Each structure stands twice: as structure tokens, then as C-alpha cells.
Amino acid sequence: MITFGRKVLVVDDNLEFVDLVRRILNQREFIVSVALDGKTAIEKALLEKPELVVLDLKLPDISGEEVLRRLKEVDKDIAVVIVTGFGGEQVAVDLMRKGAIDFISKPIDHEAFLKSIENALEIRDAQIEDKRSNHYSSLERFFPFLAHEIRNPLHAISGALTIIRKRVNLKDEILKQSITIIDDEVQHLNNFVQECLNFVRPSNLIRFTEIDLNEVLSIVVNIISHTYDLESQRIKITLTQDSCLPKIYANYEEIKQVFLNVIRNALEAMPEGGELLIRTGQIHGNPRCVEAVFIDNGVGISQEKIPYLFQPFFTTKQRGTGLGLALCRRIIEERHHGKIEIESQENKGTTVKIELPVGRRAGER
Ligand SMILES: Nc1ncnc2c1ncn2[C@@H]1O[C@H](COP(=O)(O)OP(=O)(O)O)[C@@H](O)[C@H]1O
Ligand SMILES: [Mg+2]
């Protein structure tokens, strides 16, 4: 199992033990965080979203059982491995009934400890994968069929429209307007179906490769400047790239799709023109992540709407699908284990920040 970059929280008040565990885990390139008591453990679980917690049963403040319960409240899928001192096995077994995956006794054996951690992570991954396929499977099966049934007639309508355009007298204003309406609606429906399909389509992990975010962004900005008439819309895009950016292991097409969606949203937020700054870089103090930041000075969005932005079908646009950001989140967070965040101020602008882990971890499952 590749353990590079997987997040582990070690909860124990014994500094010597914490040190030992940290050394073992660091050797396997886990990202290790430590909490010396239960309260800190819950706070860190909320903030850092660890995938696995190594939990000592005897903590100075809250009981191990209570910490386990609260950890599970924070994240149902969090993998918890209990560490017990002499004689704590009975309680540990009881906690396994309450959601812990495994327990190990102190003093720990390095190999057995690592095995237990890997095993727990594998169980967690399998649970998440199961849920995902259960959750989407009927939709995943049905939607491509539905999309096909919608698109075929749309193609036919487009074709017929081209013929009508050639044959009729376009000096007739009402006729001309009617044709434009049909054309717009057909295009809208086509886009809608495409976005739904993108959203529903399951990930294809085989296509994970090493990619350079700078390169993807240059390509995307190029596509955008060809499809949008930026000059007449008085929109300026400035791309600042960190030339030392490490490569990431990701699905190229999906990352491209995310950048396209985010940039489109920014352009749509600047109907009167404006400026979009795009910057890549490494995250201060975290060499395992890279980021791409998109800052526009468009219409922005009010604070109370921000929690809904990533929900499927949430849109404030008359012709929006509300699927762009939902898809971005699926791609970045579920498939690449990264993070996407939005900050905005009405009438000032919006910042979208995307973080992605460096190295192989993102594509491995
Ligand atoms: N750069 C932005 N500036 C202002 N609002 C934004 C921006 N990006 C997204 N939004 C808001 O988030 C909503 C959802 O975006 P998205 O999921 O892409 O769907 P859509 O673009 O189809 O509306 C948008 O309708 C808009 O209200
Ligand atoms: Mg959008």
C-alpha cells in the first residue's frame, strides 16, 4: 500500500510514545499530527480531517470511548486504531463494536503497528468506495442512457435549423429571432446534459498521470481566450506561475475541467469587464501541497449563499445548471483528496482556492 501523504492523527499524552509513533509513520511518509488530549483531538479532527486516528484509551481529559464517539460524529468514515496499555484489551474490544477498526497493545511492535494502520486505512477506503458506488450506481447507469436520448433529437434539431437558416428569408425579424431562440435553447440543453453527464460519470482512475499544473493552466487559459472574446468583454486574465511547482499525480482531463469551470464562473461574474488573476504556488509550510488561486473582481456573492455554492443545482444564474462547482468539488476533494474553497465579497470579487497533494497519493486507492 502506498502510504505517502495519508493523514494520521496520533492522540496520546505520553510524549515518548508519540515520538516513537511519529518516527515510524514518518518513515512511511504519512502526514502526522499529534494531540495530547481528547479536546485537542476533536478540534484537530474537525480542522485537519485525518483519515486515521491512533487513539490512546487513557487521556487526561475525556475518556477514549467519548473521543471515539465524537470522532465518528465528525467523520463517519474515520478509521480509528485503539492503543491500550496493559489490561485494556477488554475495553478495546468493546470499542471495536463501537466503530474502532483495530487495537494494539503497548509496547508496540513496529511491523505489527504498521500492518494495523495499513489494514485500517484499507478498510476505510473500501467503505468509502462502497458507499460511493451504492450512492451513484443507479444514476450512473441511467444517466448516460437519458443523455443519449436527449442529445440525439437535439442534434437533429440543430441540423434542421441549419437548413432553415440557409433557406428562409432572414430579413424577417420575427423569424430570425425565433431561430435564435431555438438555437440558444438547444445549446443550453446540450450544455446542461453535458454538465450532468460530467457530474455523474464515475472516475476513471486509470487515467491518473503526473501532471504539471502550470501547463494545464496555460492550456486552459488558451482555450478560454479562443472561446471567449475577452477583449471586447474588457476582461484581462493574468497568469502568474511558480516555475518550481512540483508535479502532481492527477487525472488531467478532470483537472482541466475544474479550471475551465472556475474560470468560466469568474468570467460570468464580470459582465461589465474586469480582471482575473490566476496564480500557482506552493503552500507556505506544506511542501506536500500545491495550490492554484483564482481571484476575480466581479459581482461576488453574498455570505449567506456561500455554504450552498457546492451543492448540485444551486445557481444564481438564469441559465445556470448549478453543477459546475459541485463537479469541481467531486473532482478535487473526492477523487484527488485536495481542497477547494471560495471566499467572496459582494460587488468586490471572489477568490477560489484549489489545493492538491503532490506525488502519487492522489491517484492511489
Ligand atoms: N467567481 C464567482 N463570482 C461570483 N459568484 C460565483 C462565482 N463562482 C461561482 N459563483 C456562484 O456559485 C453559483 C454556482 O456555480 P456553478 O456551480 O458553477 O453553477 P452555475 O455557474 O451553473 O450557476 C453561481 O450561480 C454563482 O452564484
Ligand atoms: Mg458555473
Structure description:
The chain has 365 residues and is α/β, with parallel strands linked by helices. The chain folds into 3 domains: 7-108, Rossmann fold (3-Layer(aba) Sandwich), CATH 3.40.50; 135-202; 206-363, Heat Shock Protein 90. The chain is 48% helix and 21% strand.
Summarize the structure.
This protein is of the alpha/beta class. It has helices spanning 15-27, 38-48, 64-74, 89-97, 110-167, 173-200, 213-227, 252-268, 324-335, and strands at 7-11, 31-35, 52-56, 79-84, 102-105, 208-211, 235-240, 248-251, 274-283, 286-296, 339-345, 349-357. Helix 5 (110-167) runs antiparallel to helix 6 (173-200), helix 7 crosses helix 8 and helix 8 packs antiparallel against helix 9.
Record keyword descriptors for this entry.
Rossmann fold; 12 strands; disordered C terminus; single chain; five-stranded parallel beta sheet; 365 residues; 9 helices; binds adenosine-5'-diphosphate; Heat Shock Protein 90; five-stranded mixed beta sheet; alpha/beta; binds magnesium ion; 48% helix
Topology:
Elements: E1 7-11, H1 15-27, E2 31-35, H2 38-48, E3 52-56, H3 64-74, E4 79-84, H4 89-97, E5 102-105, H5 110-167, H6 173-200, E6 208-211, H7 213-227, E7 235-240, E8 248-251, H8 252-268, E9 274-283, E10 286-296, H9 324-335, E11 339-345, E12 349-357
Parallel strand pairs: 1-2, 1-3, 3-4, 4-5, 7-9
Antiparallel strand pairs: 6-8, 9-10, 10-12, 11-12
Helix pairs in contact: 2-3, 5-6, 7-8, 8-9
The structure holds adenosine-5'-diphosphate and magnesium ion (MG).
